[in-house]
Amino acid sequence: MGHYFDSVDVGEAAAHEFAVAYRDGAVAPGVRAAITDPCDLGQRFANLAISTLTIRRDVDTGERTFLLHWRDPNKVGHAGGMYQVVPVGIFQPSGYAEWNVENDFSLWHNMIREFAEELCGSDEDHGSEQAPIRYESWDFASRLTDGVEDGSVAAYCLGLGVDPLSFATDLLTAVVIDGPLFDELFDGIGADNDEGRVLELQPFTTERIEQILAEVPMQAAGVAALRLAIAHLS
């Protein structure tokens, strides 16, 4: 168990130290020097984020497209002005009530909540302070889970990475959803959400991905997720 600022206190300090050193050519020994190996979780706290690349598959042509998210610096406290895969969220309970720890201790449940919040505009308050979320009777959640069972949804773990600048730790995943189900679940995707703007679907091709990475500032986890996905899922 931990707290949101456990990793922010370390990671943001390390990122600022790096920026000062890059600007001035030197920096007094500090957080970055103290943490000799950012991959050693005995030396630092790590809040795990799940970064999910969402891919739509056309069932007739096999053509695949994917979503990107631009993070509005006026709405977010981290990585403002950068692009990222979507959805992304810290792996955490849905609320403070004790029952949420066990009920939400599921990577898939966490991803479902982020899909609902970032792509459907659902409220982050699921009422779990009054009662645990019943994922099996939540229509949106059950349709995604049933999709995994019937093959219309495929979920992949691409890897685990640590941002070299801020030590942010991300589980990199991809979810491929057949067109009919994708269109039903995300019919209400709006360009704007609470954290920025969701871009229109992009072709899931090596050429388009490399073009995007060359043209826009992308978070490290997004770069890794896109390159791993195109390498292993193409």
Topology:
Elements: H1 4-24, H2 31-34, E1 48-57, E2 64-66, E3 68-71, E4 83-85, E5 88-90, H3 99-103, H4 107-120, H5 139-150, E6 153-162, E7 169-178, H6 179-185, E8 192-193, E9 196-198, E10 202-203, H7 206-215, H8 220-233
Parallel strand pairs: 1-7
Antiparallel strand pairs: 1-2, 1-5, 2-10, 3-4, 3-9, 6-7, 8-9
Strand content: 15-25%
Instruction: Report Rg.
Output: 19 Å
Q: What is the mean predicted local confidence, pLDDT?
A: 92
Number of strands: 10
Q: End-to-end distance, in Å? A: 37 Å
Strand/helix succession: HHEEEEEHHHEEHEEEHH
The helix/strand class is alpha+beta
Point out poorly predicted stretches. none
Largest sheet: 6 strands, mixed
What would your notes on this structure say?
With 234 residues, the protein is an alpha+beta fold. The protein contains eight helices and ten strands. The chain has helices spanning 4-24, 31-34, 99-103, 107-120, 139-150, 179-185, 206-215, 220-233; strands spanning 48-57, 64-66, 68-71, 83-85, 88-90, 153-162, 169-178, 192-193, 196-198, 202-203. The strands form two sheets. Strands 1, 2, 5, 6, 7 and 10 form a six-stranded mixed sheet that branches. A four-stranded antiparallel sheet has the order 4-3-9-8. A hairpin with a 6-residue loop joins strand 6 (153-162) and strand 7 (169-178). The chain is globular, with a radius of gyration of 19 Å. The N and C termini lie far apart (37 Å). The model has no long low-confidence stretch (mean pLDDT 92).
